[in-house]
Amino acid sequence: MGKRVIIIRYGEIFLKGKNRSYFESLLIKNVKFALDKLLGEGGYAFKRSQARYSIEDYSELKEAEIVDRLTKIFGIHSLSVAMKVPSDAENNFEAIKQAMIPLAEELEEENTLLDPTFRVTVKRADKRIPIPSYEIAAELAGTVLRHTSFKVDLKRYDYDFEVDIRETGDAYVYSKVILGAGGLPVGCSSKGMLLLSGGIDSPVAAYMMAKRGMKLVAVHFASPPYTSELAKQKVVRLRNIVEDYTSRMKLFVVPFTEIQLAIHEHCPAEYMITIMRRFMMRIATKLAEQQDCKAIITGESLGQVASQTVESMTSTESCAGLPIFRPLIAFDKEETMDIAKKIGTYDTSIEPFEDCCTVFLPKNPAIKPRLERVMQAEQALDIDALVEKAMSGIEKY
Length: 397
What we know:
Elements: E1 3-10, H1 20-39, E2 45-49, E3 52-56, H2 63-70, E4 76-86, H3 94-110, E5 117-124, H4 133-147, E6 151-152, E7 159-165, E8 170-174, E9 178-179, E10 191-195, H5 201-211, E11 215-222, H6 229-246, E12 251-255, H7 257-266, H8 272-290, E13 295-297, H9 310-317, E14 324-325, H10 333-343, H11 346-349, H12 371-378, H13 383-392, E15 395-396
Parallel strand pairs: 5-6, 5-7, 10-11, 10-13, 11-12, 13-14
Antiparallel strand pairs: 1-3, 1-4, 2-3, 4-8, 4-9, 7-8, 12-15
Helix pairs in contact: 1-2, 3-4, 5-6, 5-10, 7-8, 8-9, 8-13
């Protein structure tokens, strides 16, 4: 009796007042995009009821994959795998009781606790049913008592059997609530251009900005033959992992070799990193304008390396035409690594392929470069020509 469904609940969207429908529409769009990618169009049914969504008519063989994918979509507060049955109030909630029996037996089989306790929580959106929720809960608790050794404890319970009776006449029966990614739906906070290296930090920066609803486009700077095709493919794989959280994310790969060679040949070694980063900002700004991005995002953390001091970042950002967001600015490396492991990018990030930032790395880079000296050193270069040539060779993924 009944069928398995996945209930989706949103969180922060509740606070959006009259704009809530806009945020909901983005969340629904992102959910459908993710599930179409996993199951194909027509591989499931999407239903909505007040502040709830449900995924139905899917292959149960794919259930674990669906749940995993949904937990990576920002805007979802929690979800549950449930049995959907008729509320059956006229028949003393018999359909709900029958759905609770296998659920209770499954939990008892999994149980390792001594003297486990439970309660039943009933949410009654269908006010046509005149029986109070607490009376329904008491009636349903008898089913659990008859089929398990669990004892009732309304305050200090180990298991919570939840029954959500909807205004449609359906009831959802479940016991486990799985936390989602939280945050805001991707797309509600404009679009940003992410500087994506092959390291640990920038994929985490993408995750952090996507959590606040920012849609992302990524740019990577490659320096063949000093950086290999394998290094570029590593970045593509990082993009693919992060895309589970960011929804769609284009990747542009910029040829950077000629710029680095010119800097190496014509500029003081101590300013190489700063000047290189300034070129990245110029190119990222141009590309951002083409892609209608409103900000540039980096994985910089204050004081982590020579290019991430206040003076270095000030010198770098002075030639960017857009705001620069640095979501990891106050993180230490351990905090960033923890998130990288959580989102699944860490193992790929530590693969030993060089990125362009390590090519021609000077022994003693300037830690506190003065902007006027950096700009003076750049005068030896044809900046516009180098930027335009790099832009003409961009690859799109």
